[in-house]
Please model this.
Amino acid sequence: MTPHPDEQARELAEWLHEKLCCAQNLPWEKGDICDDCLESVKTEVLPILARVREEERAKLSRVPQRFWSKIEITDKCWNWLADLNRGYGVFWSNGKHVKAHRFIYERLIGPIPEGKTIDHLCRNTRCVNPAHLEPVTMSENVLRGFSDPAINGRKTHCKHGHAFTPENTFISVWGKKKQRRCRTCDKARESCRPKRVRNAPINGARRIR
Model:
């Protein structure tokens, strides 16, 4: 229920008066208010709030009611309660299934930039709260996850403590798989191998320097 405008005005004016008094190191007690603060709130602040609310209502109307009926809104996440596909909510729209989180993002926030995918900042793939969704590149999205490539990709040092600097890093390839390797460790391993097999590929791997 929206508070009466006069009640809203007094609450906001009290808050404004408090902030002004605190900024000027003036004594302030709860309930203090001045005519200037009250008038400013009524003539300037309340119209802005009313316009913002109207814009928000217009945005929310872009999402059909049957979509809202499939959401459980909690203090943090908006959990999707209907069909899932690989952990992500799916919604029937315009004759096809679409990802629920992408659907609501495009209607409340805007188009998803080309070449970007949507990352769940809350790490909850059922969540459709637009505040928890961010467009990022696919590689950035993968690196933010908890898969082995993501965990290894975030490492800044090898297991022996050597930094993965450009000078100390090379890429080994096994078929379609690539692995970041430490040059310092590689040199130490090479020094322990017989001279006749030094610098030979290990287990069929090849380097991309």
Notes: The chain has three domains: 5-60, 65-143, 155-208. The first helix runs from residue 5 to 23. The chain has seven helices and ten strands. Helices lie at 5-23, 35-60, 65-68, 100-108, 138-143, 148-153, 183-192.
